[in-house]
Design brief:
Shape: globular
Bound molecules: inosinic acid
Helix content: 25-40%
Largest sheet: 10 strands, mixed
Number of strands: 20
Distance between the termini: 24 Å
Strand order of the largest sheet: 9-7-5-2-10-1-11-15-19-20
Oligomer: single chain
Radius of gyration: 22 Å
Length: 428
């Protein structure tokens, strides 16, 4: 059995979807195991562009099962829209997709709580969430009392539970935002809406833990598709400016139910530079014309929220940390072509914090805020590389840049992406 994981090593948006789509054909099952509709994956096949959010990027490959496991927080309306969009483009979603009955369901109150909490943070600085209800839904999961899993939607007491939770949430939200015109939730109407979603999803819903444990025993090849990036990991990322799940390699088993012993390879995915969307410190940020150049060429605008992404130099200290944390065997470096026009390119090799040189990623956000990047300058290559298909055909400057990244991160580079299309990938 081969269990391959694709893990983002920065703050998300590393173009993992392209890799998953590329590697899906070598696997039997593709698994999405954490996060929710905060993720956005774009897959380009020829002239066709597919935007996916909750459905694994393996869905476009015939003969491959795509599985959404219990670690995911599920917005049923969003996944149904995705299913409809794919079906209308002749993708056989119903044959290929399975959804765990253990996924926690996102309700309107989660969206409302997300908006209220992020607008009124205790520390004064917003996280800048995607407003998809992700944090509040995970909060209810851990709190248990007001959580509803997908499997609950098919139980006799669903209506009674939803009405009583709607009532509690109406009161909680009034307390949270203190508005004169409090948001109210109509339990009966929400029940009706979600009952319709449940009916449509039913043929796809199953116990995916059992399915995957059988798949492992049957020697199936499984590809685990991480969402977001390791620096957004709830436990190991730049807390509190993180998402609410384990988005580094440590989350694979917890979210999917497949024991770590079955993971045979971890591919760490990083852009050739850094981006971050939302709040929080970003030591190598380029708040200048170089940052804007990268944003323009890399089309660095959020797939989900369309927010402009913050752009900066590659942070080798951070990626070395997340590569170690995620047990990465090899790297995929994405969007290398975006740097092609720059005369010089910088890499962060260490931080200076309070006058001291630091090579370990700080555990407290306040230390990260103080971090001044130590930058190494390399010459650019100033040549179009979008047509290159083999490492040896890359310009010397581009090869030297990749070699240095690999050396600093401490992992070999196996894949390089030089454009959005499936074909624009260097595998040898
Ligand atoms: P949340 O996941 O919506 O709660 O947002 C928390 C933080 O994670 C915010 O800074 C978001 O911008 C960021 N985030 C969440 N999902 C993604 C993603 O898929 N790509 C990049 N950033 C993300």
């Amino acid at each position: 059995m081969a269990g391959t994981c694709i893990i983002g090593l920065q703050w998300g948006d590393e173009a993992k979807g392209k890799l998953v789509d590329l590697l899906a054909k070598e696997h039997d099952v593709v698994v999405r195991y954490q996060g929710g509709a905060n993720a956005g994956h774009t897959v380009v096949i020829g002239d066709e562009k597919y935007k996916l959010s909750l459905i694994p990027s393996g869905i476009l490959t015939p003969g491959v099962k795509s599985v959404v496991t219990g670690g995911v927080v599920l917005d049923p309306k969003t996944i149904l829209e995705e299913i409809d969009g794919l079906t209308s483009r002749a993708v056989a979603v119903e044959e290929r997709l399975l959804i765990s009955d253990r996924t926690h369901v996102i309700f309107p109150w989660h969206m409302a709580e997300d908006a209220v909490m992020d607008a009124n943070p205790a520390g004064g600085e917003s996280i800048g969430t995607t407003q998809r209800g992700i944090g509040p839904c995970y909060q209810d999961k851990v709190g248990r009392s007001y959580a509803i899993r997908l499997g609950d939607l098919y139980r006799d007491d669903f209506r009674q539970r939803i009405e009583s939770i709607a009532d509690v949430k109406t009161r909680t939200l009034a307390g949270l935002n203190g508005r004169a015109d409090p948001i109210t939730f109509d339990g009966a109407a929400i029940h009706q809406e979600y009952q319709a979603y449940a009916a449509r999803l039913k043929p796809l819903v199953c116990d995916t833990t059992a399915y995957l444990l059988d798949a492992v025993e049957d020697d199936k090849r499984i590809l685990f598709e991480g969402a977001q990036g390791a620096l957004l990991d709830i436990d190991h990322g730049t807390f509190p400016f993180v998402t609410s799940s384990n988005s580094s390699g440590v989350g694979v088993s917890g979210g999917s139910g497949v024991p770590g012993r079955w993971i045979t390879k971890v591919l760490g995915v990083a852009k050739a530079y850094s981006t971050r969307v939302g709040g929080g410190p970003f030591p190598t940020e380029l708040d200048n014309e170089i940052g804007q150049h990268i944003r323009d060429l890399g089309n660095e605008y959020g797939t989900v929220t369309n927010r402009p992404r913050r752009c900066g130099w590659f942070d080798a200290l951070a990626v070395r940390y997340t590569a170690r944390l995620s047990g990465v065997d090899a790297l995929a470096v994405m969007l290398l072509d975006v740097l092609s026009e720059l005369p010089q390119i910088k890499i962060c090799t260490a931080y200076e914090i309070d006058g001291k040189r630091v090579t370990n990623f700080p555990s407290h956000v306040d230390d990260l805020r103080k971090a001044v990047p130590v930058l190494e300058t390399l010459p650019g290559w100033q040549q179009d590389i979008t047509g290159v298909r083999r490492m040896k055909d890359l310009p010397t400057g581009a090869r030297a840049y990749l070699d240095r990244l690999s050396e600093l991160v401490g992992r070999p580079i196996e894949i390089v992406s030089v454009g959005p299309d499936r074909e624009q990938t260097i595998l040898e």
